Amino acid sequence: MNVFGNKVIRIDAKEKANGVSKYAADYYFPNMLYAEVVHANISHGILEDIDTEEAEKIPGVIKIATYKDVPGINKFGHVVEDMPFLVPIGEKVRFEGDAIALIAAESPEIAKIAKKLIKIKVKELPGVFSIEEAIEDKILIHDKSNIGFKRKIKRGNLEKAFNDADLTISKQFETGYQEHAYLETQGIVTNFSTNLELYVSAQCPFYVQKDVAKILNLDLKDINVIQTETGGGFGGKEDVPSYITAKAALLSYLTKRPVKLIYSREMDILETSKRHPSKSYYKVAFKKDGTILGVKSKIYLDMGAYSTLSPIVMYRTMVHACGAYSVDNVDVEVLGVYTNKVPCGAFRGFGSPQVLLAIESIMDLAAKKLNIDPYEIRVKNALEIGKKTSTGHLLKESVGAKKTLKKVYIASNYEKLKREIQEFNEKNLYKKRGLGWAHIFYGVSLGAGGQFLDGATAVVNIQSDGTITVMIGNTEMGQGAKTTIAIIISEILGQDVSKIRVLQPQTLFIQDSGPTVASRTTVFSGNAVKIAAEKLKENIISFLSSYLKVQKEEILFKDGYVYFKNKKFSFDEIAKLCNDNNVKLSETGWYKTPKLNFDHENGIGEAYITYSYATQLSMVEVDLLTGKIELKKVWVCHDIGKVINLEGAIGQVHGGIIQGMGYVLFEEIKQKNGKILTKNFNNYLIPTIKDIPNEFNVDFVEDEFSQGPFGAKGLGEPSLMSAPPSIFNAVSNAIKKALNKIPISIKDIITEKE
Ligand code: MTE
Ligand code: MOS
């Protein structure tokens, strides 16, 4: 490998650092209008009237749109169309962020004035604000039960497992919301010429294109979605940009003018998706030696007012509910419930952090009861080739799970560390330190339920000066995909990474490559790019071998040069030569997922194409007087098959750990009657630079995946997933009390004393 594993400068670093990159809010078009959204601001009720008369009188208000103006289908829903785009009169409002009317005005100020003058009348209904209230089904949010979706794994003989058990642990867990807190809020600018051009901050431009087409009753050919530079998504820009874009697109369609809609932070927090709060009930059977015999669990996810992506999130919850362990007897049930609150959806980890917290906490409890080290109990149950996951997926390759455990054990000098912590705790009365292990796995790709979307394409062009342009159907949202893609091309064609440009995708110019989620870009777009680059290499080699009369095998591509027999030419010169000789310098690659066998009825089979694995050990210090928790040191190791972009991978791990730390220690959405009170970062607290650990020890295992590009798997989400359970266990360990709820509150730490 020439480029893999080296330090490479991010290809979009300079533009971003210099403020040159264009985000949605940076787009302006002549004659552009500014949009505002009128929300219901009531959690549950019947919409009786929308009065726009006063607002329409304001000079500069060009259009006020309601449900009556929607030319296509006025509904959204990835699995079930249960969400109105604009709530019709006579129908239900189901959460405060339901959209009632849209305003297009000559200036943002005018739009805001108009917003205040629109009067809506809603007959309020009692609401459902918790999982407990929802499952009682006394108040129905939709026409049927509030328990909207169920998924289950039923495998083996659980009764026997519990009969044979030496130890049974039963425990309940509760997890809260998490807000994505991307730096750039949701935003869209439309341009209307012969067709609709939509400049959107989004992870999934093809979702936006299809959803807008449905709302406006247009052909896909008439909608070009251009993904703008995206300042963070974290799952929050998977389906949500469709709902936002449709608003501006409708106004643009009605006025035939460009429209800009940039969300304020308050609007963004009020209306858009979060990580699902959960309640889970676990019962796990262990043998004396620590072996897990069986897992029974019932997990409720609070979907909020509409199902959006929840049924898909629940699939991942289900598959990850027993953790990264080999378990033969399983009864996992995941239930998605409706409440009159903000709809929840995709968030890095996609329904797995909630359950990994539970199972990893139980592993610690069992270790303690059985007098086994928490490290050992994880090694004992870890997956390896020839073992089966909880869905019965027989693993045949690329299982670096145990290697990640071992590497963390060694890197942390664990036995010595344990002694040091013990000494510290003996010396300090009010400051206590704790260590926490977490071992996790992550199913790469969309999985057995999403295979129809699991393909990706890339178009690679060599310009006549040797520079290279690429368009992929997946997106950069900060995770470093562009650089990873450029490194793969550089590895194959030898051209320098800095001479490769990865373009923003446009839906009219590239095939639908599915959503940029599920940490799938490296495998899917990476493979597509690899296929295209290899075709280009073959085109060049074929030409050169006949032109120069050399054997194909004698031609090498490396470090920006093409070598043959003792000669070398720059890649740039070769490109020019090829161009002047009519060599084909544009190629496409397409990669699709191998077929998975899965029984959805019983949750048994090959859930994902492969799995990434990780182990994290965290050290925290807890101040028993103030309740302050400090994450001091972290050791983490990921098996991602192959490290393509080393610096990028380390960056993902740092960011993931910090975001995971926020979830456990800081972040809390406070609500009253379903309405969010914490609408900005003054009261929704996320970690800052002052909260991050002073030591991150990041390492990787490269247990290659035969289908991955050069063996690579995925890292984007696992980088977060090991953090919450590891930090949670470390705090429990420090205060010598097994916690069962996040975010950890000060009350959990400071128990009333004498
Ligand atoms: N990293 C940054 N900086 N910004 C992001 O928005 N999103 C995460 C993860 N890492 C995100 C990120 C999520 S939710 C996913 S699914 C993956 O990146 C997607 O990118 P990948 O497919 O390249 O892993
Ligand atoms: Mo990531 S939650 O799959 O966008």
TrEMBL record:
SUPFAM superfamilies assigned to the protein according to its UniProt record, in alphabetical order: CO dehydrogenase molybdoprotein N-domain-like (SSF54665), Molybdenum cofactor-binding domain (SSF56003)
Name the UniProt record assigns to this protein: Aldehyde oxidase and xanthine dehydrogenase, molybdopterin binding
Residue span, Aldehyde oxidase/xanthine dehydrogenase a/b hammerhead domain: 18-126
SMART domains: Ald_Xan_dh_C
Keyword Oxidoreductase among UniProt keywords: yes
Organism annotation: Thermosipho melanesiensis (strain DSM 12029 / CIP 104789 / BI429)
GO molecular function: iron ion binding; oxidoreductase activity
One Pfam family here: MoCoBD_2
Keywords for the protein's UniProt record, in alphabetical order: Molybdenum, Oxidoreductase
Family annotation (InterPro entries): Ald_Oxase/Xan_DH_a/b (IPR000674), Ald_Oxase/Xan_DH_a/b_sf (IPR036856), Ald_Oxase/xanthine_DH-like (IPR016208), AldOxase/xan_DH_MoCoBD1 (IPR008274), AldOxase/xan_DH_MoCoBD2 (IPR046867), AldOxase/xan_DH_Mopterin-bd_sf (IPR037165)
